[in-house]
Specification:
heterotrimer; A alpha/beta; B alpha/beta; C alpha/beta; B: alpha/beta; Aldehyde Dehydrogenase, Chain A, domain 1; five-stranded parallel β-sheet; three-stranded antiparallel β-sheet; about 40% helix; C: alpha/beta; Aldehyde Dehydrogenase, Chain A, domain 2; seven-stranded mixed β-sheet; DeoC/FbaB/LacD_aldolase (chain A); PTS_HPr_His_P_site (chain A); Deoxyribose-phosphate aldolase (chain A)
């Protein structure tokens, strides 16, 4: 596989040689998986699994230390009335909030919850490469355990695949710490801007070949974010990549997943497409914020038999 | 303006001298005694007749029920000249807003499946059936018909929705098809909606005529800006209440009342309107010519009026075809 | 009910993957969240799949099945003249659902007479009025779709997901579509005033009982005919419920008559001298017998018979969707589909890749209780059909083809057959030539488009075919060459009331659906 990234031409030939995607068929499959009926024990399992897969996220210009601390406290103990509720997978913030988040998680007694940071001039990614690398190093130095980078969609859409690949490779380098360990790299495609499913498949393979640990749909900042068909397609890509290269890569849909019903549909998709090896926070994440409270309300409903309400979950 | 945000309510517009809902003028001139008479159940001769609640007739634009942005109304009378209601007198800005709403609704409506559109048109018929009495009353008042005559008009209008509902997934099989071109090509022609259609409802048939010009426009996926018959707009404005409760997406049909010539002129000249049905100008050749001339500016499809249209006879496909384009797709055939 | 066995795919994978990149984990060693608390608990006991779906049964209580049903003749239910009855069972449990009248010649005679009496007034109605009856039926079918879906799954064995999402919505859609034709016949291209034929004798199969009823009754009524319909022996119930829908719709008596029974009932019906039209869907063998029966009469005949469809996968196909299409093509409705894609023709350069993916996908099919909303493959409709599938599959093995099925535990009662794949099949094998009508896929390979077409056409059947390639001109070339009545490209098993359906060659003649489907019921 190494030779396919030897030149722009070779990489283009490889990516354009991947099997095409028929959009109608893809949509039909995603919709069919969406009709699975997940009840009782399976639902309880799915809800806790989904909570444990959430990258609890705040990515606003108005973010402040107070907001980040509140988010961290919530991530550590999502349901203050029920300590059996699982912790979230990670806290996701901008680079300048990483140190605050690390401190807050320690204070909340959950130092093991990783902190993810968006970097590389998120969300547009329109900055020079040195700036993107500095952004990444800054976040890693502040203690980020995971880096969510954005690809250069402009370069991708104009066919400069090698440039995109090279950027991912260099950001991956920038994720290295002095002790030889490295922050975990998630690569965001902004699938809403890639427009075609063929592009999503190509971007997936490009990123995986360049060393992505996770491939992620969206920034949450554009009109179209994660959708079931896009996520299904990316799950097919990681499945096929492992089968042919032997490396397992994670998938993270982000943006627009707000309800338990939606989250369970995604888990069904993981289960029946990539398989149960991906049914873990190590291999599948949800980039979300409001999803958590809906999961908690559903969890309370399963426990009590009564429908819960927004007054019984916390707003942070 | 919506009911909720309006501070002063019905007493607000000064141009409403005979406002019947104004508490200060419960028996204002023109306030129809006949309406109170219609109220059922004042059995005991001694009991006072219950005062009926009059309806404020409003426009129907983008799925909502605004008043005219101009704040103007005009008096609508029955065939004997008795006052019925104050209808909004739409302005050119109302026409503009309606075109915006129709354009916004076009991608969704034209992109819906024919089956979906057919079911929605059928749903309109179902909803109308339940309001048969209301429309019979309104048509009788508007056209001076007895109840049986008005009911026949309403029944025919309901059946007309059903007739057009069935066309949604058939018109393509009747007017489209494979073309046997001389070469290794697949060649298929299909009808497609032309876009936003301005419709001047006929003046001689306040409800059956109205339905007969709206349904063929929208069944194929066009969206419509409809100018109700100037003298008899009430059945049209009430139709909005039916459309709003029939799963028809907002903006597919927009209903304006007022002066036909006043509203039609900006519509005929509007560069974002694709076609115009001049049925409502049948009795005014000068107006029809002016509108057709204005329509030429962006080459609108124009359906000229016919002075002799009998709205009670079964329609053919003419009114649908007038607002359809034909798209032909070529594709090579080879290994 | 069986659970999918993931181990199957694990075993067939050649190399164990490297679990993650060397530089991991960024995630600290201590498990976080659910992994430390409830997450490690599986949805079912240890050893099963991690995420096992709990049973999600559709409630049976939405349908009320009477212990006994008569024949529906002239708007009323009545016993068979000779009092004979037969039992209809649920193929998933072998439970007796009801006893149904076995119609005989006398009953057929009464039904035809009722239809004849009704024909005059019915055909004289304005089309717009006939349309409104059919619209009513369409709407009532929509309203009662949940009840009817459960009924259909009980009597037929098909998964509730399919009866709910395919059979019922389509059945209503066919009525809705043909309702709209009733007052537009003059526009259909059959002349200014095409006339109905009279009494239509309609015999339908057990694979889509209510949907096949709608394919038959909707166009017949729209064009002004009256009908006597005989549902299949093993699936009579939904047609009898349909009789109640006719009652709710206020349909005049005698316009629709339902005569239940076995093959002899159907034979009596098509042979009855009082019918003007015969429409049959079922096996080619019976279709030929019916064609002989009506030979020399003036009865108009349409036949929708068997098939052995080729599903052609070129090397440039959208493979993930092709795999879905192959699975849907052969395992939809347990393969009880006349147009099923029962022969997979795959280009040799991608054969291994496609077959690997196909096996992996088949391992996720959930076989079991038809009323479970997560079931993908239900029960085979009858003991007789199960025997036939078993015999043909055994013949495939005996003739040297390689047989594979995913591991799945089949229920101990009822009629079940695991999804089955045969590789190394040649055109000479019985499983490549005979219609199995079950969840059995025969895989053949080809090298060139010409070879694909040659093999695809090398069958007495010609109902349907599939083509998978991203290249449009190749789709159209292949479609041009195929001798089949329906060709699906980059999709499979799609049906729509606006689209004609029917076969070439021994798959029958006549078309059902759309404008074309009107011809079968008009004097043209």
């Amino acid at each position: 596989m190494a030779d396919v990234t030897a030149s722009d031409a070779a990489l283009r030939r490889f990516l354009h040689g991947l099997p095409g995607v028929d959009a109608v068929g893809l949509h039909a499959r995603a919709a069919a998986l969406g009709t699975r009926s997940i009840k009782t024990t399976a639902k309880a399992f799915a809800i806790d699994l989904a909570i444990s897969m959430i990258d609890l996220t705040t990515l606003e210009g108005a973010d402040s230390p107070g907001k980040v601390r509140a988010l961290c406290a919530k991530g550590a103990h999502p349901d203050p009335l029920d300590r059996s509720a699982p912790k979230v997978a990670a806290i996701c913030v901008y680079p300048d909030m990483v140190a605050t988040a690390k401190d807050a998680l320690r204070a909340a007694g959950a130092p093991h919850i990783p902190v993810a940071s968006v970097a590389t001039a998120f969300p547009a990614g329109r900055a020079a490469l040195p700036v993107k690398l500095a952004d990444t190093r800054d976040a890693v130095a502040a203690g980020a355990d995971e880096i969510d980078m954005v690809i250069d969609r402009g370069a991708f859409l104009t066919g400069r695949y090698l440039q995109v690949s090279e950027e991912i490779r260099q950001v991956k380098e920038a994720c290295r710490r002095e002790d030889g360990s490295a922050a975990h790299l998630k690569v965001i495609f902004e699938t809403g801007e890639l427009q075609t499913y063929d592009n999503v498949r190509r971007a997936s393979w490009l990123a995986m070949l360049a060393g992505a640990d996770f491939i992620k749909t969206s920034t949450g900042k554009v009109a179209v974010n994660a959708t079931p068909p896009v996520t299904l397609l990316m799950l097919e890509a990681v499945r096929d990549f492992r089968a042919s290269v032997g490396v397992q890569v994670g998938v993270k849909p982000a943006g627009g997943i707000r309800t338990t019903k939606d989250a369970v549909k995604y888990l069904v998709m993981v289960n029946e497409t990539a398989g149960e090896d991906w049914l873990s926070p190590d291999w599948f994440r949800f980039g979300a914020s409001s999803l958590l409270n809906d999961l908690l309300m559903q969890r309370q409903k399963l426990g009590t038999g009564r429908y819960s309400g927004p007054d019984y979950v916390t707003v942070d | 303006m919506s009911e909720l945000t309006e501070p002063t309510g019905k007493t607000g517009p000064p141009a409403s001298p005979a406002s019947p809902a104004s508490p200060s003028s419960p028996s204002a001139p023109g306030s129809p005694a006949s309406r109170a008479d219609e109220v059922p159940g004042s059995p005991g001769g001694g009991a006072a007749a219950r005062l009926s609640v009059l309806k404020t007739y409003k426009l129907f634009v983008g799925g909502k029920f605004p008043r005219s942005e101009s704040g103007r109304v005009y008096e609508v009378s029955d065939s004997t000249g008795a006052w019925l209601a104050n209808a909004p007198r739409s302005s050119r800005k109302d026409a503009r807003d309606a075109v915006v709403a129709a354009r916004k609704a076009f991608p969704g409506w034209s992109g819906a499946t024919a089956y979906n559109r057919g079911q929605i048109l059928y749903r309109i018929a179902e909803m109308l059936e339940g309001r048969r009495e209301q429309f019979t009353t309104e048509v009788a008042a508007a056209e001076g018909l007895d109840r049986a005559g008005a009911a026949a008009q309403v029944d025919a209008a309901i059946d007309r929705w059903v007739w057009y509902a069935g066309w949604s997934d058939k018109i393509a099989q009747v007017v489209g098809g494979a073309n046997p071109v001389a070469g290794p090509y697949f060649n298929l022609s299909s009808p497609e909606p032309t876009g936003v259609v301005a419709v001047l409802a006929p003046g001689d048939s306040s409800f059956l005529g109205l339905v007969s010009v709206i349904a063929p426009v929208i069944v194929t996926g066009n969206t419509a800006v409809v100018v109700a018959a100037e003298r008899t707009p009430l059945p049209a404005l009430s139709l909005g209440e039916v459309l709003a409760t029939s799963d028809l997406p907002g903006g597919v049909v927009n209903l304006l009342s007022g002066g036909t010539a006043e509203i039609a002129a900006p519509l005929a000249a509007h560069q974002d309107v694709n076609a115009i049905d001049l049925a409502g100008a049948a009795t005014d050749e000068t107006l029809a010519k002016e509108l057709e001339t204005a329509a030429a500016d962006n080459l609108k499809r124009v359906l000229r009026p016919s002075a002799t249209t009998d709205w009670t006879t079964g329609p053919g496909t003419e009114r649908m075809l007038a607002f359809l384009e034909t798209k032909t797709v070529w594709h090579p055939i080879g290994i | 009910m069986t659970q999918p066995k993931k181990q199957q795919t694990r075993q067939t994978r050649e190399t164990q993957p490297q679990r993650g990149r060397q530089t991991r984990p960024a995630t600290p060693a201590e498990p976080t969240g659910a992994l430390g608390t409830t997450g490690t608990a599986r949805a079912t006991g240890a050893g099963g799949p991690l995420f096992a779906y709990a049973p999600a049964p559709e409630s049976r209580s939405v349908v009320d099945i009477a212990p006994r049903y008569g024949l529906y003749i002239d708007g009323e239910f009545r016993e068979a003249a000779d009092g004979q009855v037969f039992k209809t069972v649920s193929p998933s449990s072998e439970e007796v659902l009801s006893e149904v009248a076995q119609g005989g010649e006398e009953d057929v005679d009464a039904a035809v007479a009722a239809a004849r009496r009704a024909f005059g007034p019915w055909s004289a109605l304005p089309g717009a009025e006939r349309a409104k009856y059919l619209f009513r039926i369409a709407r009532i079918l929509q309203e009662r779709s949940r009840e009817l879906a459960v009924l259909e799954s009980l009597d037929n064995g098909k998964p509730i997901r399919e009866s709910r999402d395919a059979d019922l919505p389509l059945a209503a859609a066919y009525f809705f579509h043909y309702a709209g034709w009733a007052d537009k016949l003059a526009h259909a291209g059959y002349g200014p005033d095409p006339r109905p034929l009279g009494v239509a004798a309609q015999v339908i199969p057990w694979n889509f009982p209510l949907l096949m009823l709608s394919w038959k009754i909707a166009p017949a009524l729209a064009t002004g005919n009256t009908v006597v319909l005989k549902p299949a022996e093993t699936t009579p119930l939904s047609a009898l419920f349909f009789a109640d829908i006719c009652r709710q719709a206020g349909l005049p008596r005698g316009v629709v008559n339902i005569v239940t029974g076995d093959g002899s009932t159907g034979a009596a019906l098509v042979a009855h001298p009082g019918v003007d039209k015969v429409a049959f869907t079922g096996s080619t063998e019976v279709g030929k017998a019916i064609a002989r029966t009506v030979a020399g009469t003036r009865k108009k005949l349409t036949l929708e018979l068997g098939g052995k469809a080729a599903n052609i996968v070129y090397d440039d196909a959208p493979l993930d969707q092709a795999v879905e299409g192959i699975v849907n093509g052969i395992f939809f409705n347990q393969g009880h589909v006349c147009c099923a894609g029962s022969r997979l023709l795959v280009q040799e350069s991608v054969a291994e890749e496609v077959l690997d993916a196909l096996r992996r996908r088949m391992a996720t099919l959930r076989v079991g209780d038809p009323l479970d909303k997560n079931t993908d493959v239900g029960a085979v409709n009858s003991r007789e059909q199960l025997d036939r599938i078993t015999a043909l599959a055994d013949a495939g093995e005996a003739e040297g083809a390689e047989r594979w099925s995913p591991a799945c535990d089949l229920p101990s009662t009822g009629y079940w057959f695991a999804p089955t794949l045969f590789t190394g099949v040649t055109q000479a094998h019985r499983i490549a030539r005979e219609e199995i009508f079950g969840p059995v896929l025969s895989v053949l390979t080809f090298r060139t488009p010409a070879e694909a077409v040659e093999k695809a056409n090398n069958t007495p059947y010609g109902l349907s075919a599939g083509i998978w390639t991203e290249k449009g001109s190749r789709i159209l070339w292949t479609a041009d060459q195929l001798r089949a009545g329906v060709v699906w490209a980059n999709t499979f098993n799609k049906f729509d009331p606006a689209s004609p359906f029917g076969g070439y060659k021994e798959s029958g003649h006549g078309r059902e659906g759309g404008r074309h489907g009107l011809e079968a019921y008009l004097d043209v």
